[in-house]
Description:
Blueprint: E1 2-6, H1 12-21, E2 25-26, E3 29-30, H2 38-53, E4 65-72, E5 75-83, H3 88-92, E6 97-101, H4 110-125, E7 130-136, H5 140-148, E8 152-156, E9 160-166
Antiparallel strand pairs: 1-4, 2-3, 4-5, 5-6, 7-9, 8-9
Amino acid sequence: xxxxxxxxxxxxxxxxxxxxxxxxxxxxxxxxxxxxxxxxxxxxxxxxxxxxxxxxxxxxxxxxxxxxxxxxxxxxxxxxxxxxxxxxxxxxxxxxxxxxxxxxxxxxxxxxxxxxxxxxxxxxxxxxxxxxxxxxxxxxxxxxxxxxxxxxxxxxxxxxxxxxxxx
Length: 167
């Protein structure tokens, strides 16, 4: 059974394993913590995830963001980032939700279910009338996931589709 769980200190080992096994940049999902050590993850990265969800110690031009891990029973299979509101750059780019699924779990419905669960969380947190997302044009599977979850293509540029989901 798939479920979302916020980043937390109790699951540090499995969270660290997921972060270090997820590529730095794949299909537009940026994992800036890919090369961190176990100590850096526990003492810097994980506390940052937790603090960001509460709007604490945000870096310049960052907004509060909750990091959810998508679990399949006792294994992390994906990561979903939910930005609580948008600044100008996010409104024109990545939007409210970003996500990535482990390669070995793709094509099994994990992204669709994880996004559905994240949208439910977004409906509680995001004040906007629509949830903004984006997807690279060379990632048609992710576009299908978004469309399956009620998104429509709002606009596009040479590299990306920009989608919206009405709340």
